[in-house]
């Protein structure tokens, strides 16, 4: 992954974390030490490009490797630091850090929810698009297996992803939804009869049914909403 691309990731993520909430500070139990809190935030932000690079290389990783990228004085906060980029990687990029050899604390980075598509062209550095794909599948499921285009963009706008505005991770979101995801058979859409102006409703495509489950996407949606999956009682029952 190029230095320019890595730099863009750092800048964008840093800006996103500038408005971090008081709750985030409380979660870190560091709200009474602003300097330390910000130092650990910066450590967490700096890990995202490193993890992305590991994903791109399809290389395994270990806690020891990650510790080398954390300031010595902050290494005893390892778990707190890693939690932040781990969640960011999963929700934004759709990439999960999976432990493969527990005794050695070795892990790999793989697409979450069973999905195999990341939208990165072969042998070229780029941003995984699977985060947006999985979120679209979530929206379709919670909307009763059909979701209008308007509903999808309304949810994605909470991540500042808009249909006709280029996004530094997902590129051209409308093209991604209407063309790429459809071409890859993860989603399908059709016009609502007699709609004027034209309204499209989206549904899961055959590849989505082959690779993932409603239970997996509900778990992902719960993380996005920061709640337990069981809070969505009817959906949780349907997903079992």
Automatic annotation (TrEMBL):
<dbReference type="Pfam" id="PF01454">
    <property type="entry name" value="MAGE"/>
</dbReference>
<dbReference type="InterPro" id="IPR041899">
    <property type="entry name" value="MAGE_WH2"/>
</dbReference>
<dbReference type="GO" id="GO:0000122">
    <property type="term" value="P:negative regulation of transcription by RNA polymerase II"/>
</dbReference>
<dbReference type="InterPro" id="IPR037445">
    <property type="entry name" value="MAGE"/>
</dbReference>
<protein>
    <submittedName>
        <fullName>Melanoma-associated antigen 10-like</fullName>
    </submittedName>
</protein>
<dbReference type="GO" id="GO:0005634">
    <property type="term" value="C:nucleus"/>
</dbReference>
<feature type="domain" description="MAGE">
    <location>
        <begin position="40"/>
        <end position="239"/>
    </location>
</feature>
<dbReference type="InterPro" id="IPR041898">
    <property type="entry name" value="MAGE_WH1"/>
</dbReference>
<dbReference type="InterPro" id="IPR002190">
    <property type="entry name" value="MHD_dom"/>
</dbReference>
